[in-house]
Amino acid sequence: MRTTVGIIGAGPAGLLLARLLHRAGIDSVVLEGRDRAYVEHRQRAGILEQGTVDVLRAAGAGERMDREGLRHDGIELRYDRKRHRVDFPALTGGRSVTVYAQTEVCKDLIALQLKEGGPLLFEAEALAVEGADTDAPSIRFRHEGREDVLECEYVVGCDGFWGVARKAIPTELTRVFERTYPYAWLGILADVPPSHDELVYARHDRGFALLSMRSPSVSRLYLQVPEGTDADSWGDEEIWDELERRFETDDDWTLDRGPITQKSVTPMRSYVHEPMRHGRLFLAGDAAHIVPPTGAKGLNLAVGDVVTFAKALSYQKDTGSAELLDRYSETCLRRIWQAERFSYDMTSLLHRAPGATPFEDRMQLARLERIAGSRAAETDLAEAYTGFPFD
Question: What is the dihedral of CA 197, 203, 207, 213, to 10 degrees?
């Protein structure tokens, strides 16, 4: 097989890249190791920044998102039994975010790719990227019981942290920056309408909690728990009781309970791999960077990466200049490090570290009071949450 761009991974990054390239008249092939049902049902991020929403619309993938997604114009911060709403449009010139699950984004992009785009091969396991530093890189993969080779002009690894793409970059050429946090998120899906119409981020002496949603009838909630926690060690009523404690306020707000349909534990880490390019191999999304979920940045960073690559390759096609491709890593990393900074700030602001001292507790409360009392501090949060520019 031969194509211009070989894409490893049919998550939202790989699928969106294939869509953007198709609309630019550039052919591609997408290889995905899992089957279609798995890709369309794995639970991941659910918050789309304004820029991500705009890109999906421009790519012709926004119809169902606009119909079923939930636009949110703010978030609520809770601390010390207080409530403070951050009004995004008022602070950012009209920007907002949209609640629309990654599973739904993938369903929309898969349907478009199969209808209009180039080949999308499920259960096609990428085994290695070869010749990344040559003019003719290739992807060795296994599909339908036999090995094959996809010959490319460019390879983009959208295959996540455990994929093969990053392994093709010599370790002596790389730098890795990472931090592992001593806590995790216990997440639940529950068949109950959300108890608030926007996301609620709660800082409590017992630990962080987040009230989110997947739809008007399905709630998504999280509790800070110790690293290594087994989700099944928490009973359903125990989870609801703990959520009630951490969301407590001085008014009459109540948390509605319902049947819990899914439990999982998400570890917390920050990770950046530099550079994001080696020869004609480019990394995108979790293959190059991971953020703790507090800032809702993971999916949106991946979108920024593939938008940057698609623009750079289109520019080369139109002008013959590789200038933007040569700056791919530098361009992406500027945005990535700002998102890493914001995600770290939100995480340290709202989570209680093991062994935290009374001084550290008071510092968290002082930072939250600053956000609630300063338009400048509040604007900084709102601008970061709704998204840094892709360019």
Answer: 10
Of 75, 27, 86, 353, give the one whose Cα is nearest residue 205: 353
Cβ atoms 224, 292 nearer than 8 A: no
311 and 185 Cβ atoms separated by less than 8 Å = no
Condensed to tens digits (0 to 9), the pLDDT of residues 346-363 reads 999 999 999 999 999 999
Within 8 A by CB and 6+ apart from 285, the residues are 9, 11, 13, 158, 160, 298, 301, 302, 305, 306
- State the number of CA atoms in the 13 A half-sphere of 118 facing the CB: 26
Task: Decide if 43 contacts 218 (C-beta within 8 A).
Answer: no
Chain segment 318-377, per-residue pLDDT in tens: 999 999 999 999 999 999 999 999 999 999 999 999 999 999 999 999 999 999 999 999
Q: Decide: 239 and 228 in contact? Cβ < 8 Å.
A: no
As a whole number of angstroms, the distance between CA 119 and CA 134 comes to: 24
- List the catalytic residues: 72, 201, 293, 297, 385
306 within 8 A of 156, measured Cβ to Cβ: yes
Helix axes 102-116, 12-23, angle to 10 degrees: 40
How far is residue 295's CA from residue 293's CA, in Å, rounded to a whole number?
Answer: 6
Q: What is the pTM of this model?
A: 0.95
Q: With contact defined as beta carbons under 8 Å apart, do 95 and 58 qualify?
A: no
| Closest alpha carbon to 116 in 210, 211, 20, 185 | 20
